[in-house]
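If you are new to this repository, start here. Below is one unmodified record pulled from the training split, so you can see the exact layout before writing a loader.
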Amino acid sequence: MSDVVELLVPGGKATPGPPVGPALGPLGANIKQIVDEINEKTSGFVGMQIPVKIIVEDDKSFSIEVGTPPTSELIKKEVGVEKGSGAPGRDSIGDISLEGVKKIAKTKMEMMLSYELKNAVKEVIGTCQSIGVTVDGLIPKDMLGKIDGGEYDKVL
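And here is the target side for that same chain:
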């Protein structure tokens, strides 16, 4: 029987400390090897929190599955900020292009509830709203209204 540990780790910068070490210590796996492999597999996501699934077998061998970063992390990377707004409805921390939103939607499509790109884009714009990011200079609610009105049907 195998044990599965799911964690959010900083891309390329996981350490044997929390959250990795305490979660894996009781399983008897080689934490240093696991941390090294996580850092290797997540090195392209430096600065983002990455979901990682670690499967430890009875013989202490392990495998690591790396997920895609949360939508909010992808938006923050695209905008070039480290954290979202403290007052998202009032203060904007940056602006993202509709093309950037579309790129994120395509990346996350597999994990979303949406079957169409247009709806996936709307989900990403909803996340923009919650972290205080405007889309092509518009507040996300206005952008959603334009998308629903068919203004962007040709590009979506």
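Two things worth knowing about this chain: The domain at 71-148 is CATH 1.10.10.250 (Arc Repressor Mutant, subunit A). Helices lie at 20-24, 31-41, 71-79, 98-108, 117-131, 140-148.
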